[in-house]
Amino acid sequence: MERIRQLISDASAALGRLSPRERGLVGLAGGAVLVFVVAIFALTVSRKVDQREARIKLKLQQLEEVAKLTVGFRAQEAERTDLERRLRDNKVRLFTYLDELSKKDGIAIGGMNDKGTQALEGTKINEQSVEVTFTRIPLDKLVKFLTEVEAGQGLVKVTRLRVTPRNDEPVLDAWLTVTTYTLET
Fold first, then answer.
1. What is the pLDDT of residue 67?
2. 178 near 130, Cβ under 8 Å?
3. What are phi and psi of 165, to 5 degrees?
């Protein structure tokens, strides 16, 4: 502490011996050094603030992305849960279901062939399919039947459809595969 006081008193004495012009120049040089030190400090602080603002901006973007993904995940999770529930509750008997629909619509089924039940690879889902044949069916009745098959009960989908026109009448021959899905228990 004593050493610092000694340095301050020596500096005061040295400044006292200077002429007014020299004191002005030393003051100007000291001011320039002070401005330089303040500018370096301000630039350092400004750079640090910019770096932190950039990190904050990046983190906010990441949070927004997480929020979007969370919403998407929740929607997909709800959809998956609903689909699993529908698969568990799916008790459609395809032969009976298709026969009732055809009778309701006044359509004669040419034939039905059970393709059996098989597990979908890598899943716990079973697929049961039936091939259905229609001969001499009008287009409007076929469209109505197909719509009712998929809009009706359970998870029933038309997975294949082949239609050929007939030359003798304005009707069609159609072959379709109707499939339903259930979850293994």
1. 92
2. yes
3. -75, 155
Give per-10-residue mean pLDDT for the chain (185 aa): 85 81 85 94 95 96 94 92 85 89 90 90 88 92 93 88 89 94 81
Last residue of a domain, one of 63, 89, 115: 89
- In what helix (H) or strand (E) does residue 75 lie, and over which residues does it extend? helix 20-89
> For position 185, what pLDDT does the model report?
67
Backbone angle region of 87, left / alpha / beta, with phi > 0 → left and psi within -120 to 50 → alpha? alpha
Q: List the domain range (segments joined by +) for residue 143.
A: 90-183
Q: What angle do CA 89, 183, 154 make, to 5 degrees?
A: 40
pLDDT of residue 45: 95
Give the predicted TM-score (pTM) of the model: 0.59
How many domains does the chain divide into? 2
> Is the CB of residue 136 less than 8 Å from the CB of residue 166?
yes
The beta-strand segments (E) located in the chain are 111-119, 125-137, 156-165, 172-183
Q: Are residues 32 and 54 in the same domain?
A: yes
To the nearest 10°, report the CA torsion of 68, 71, 74, 79: -100
C-alpha–C-alpha distance, residues 75 and 69, integer Å? 10
Q: What's the per-residue H, E or C state across 122-174?
A: CCCEEEEEEEEEEEEECHHHHHHHHHHHHHCCCCEEEEEEEEEECCCCCCEEE
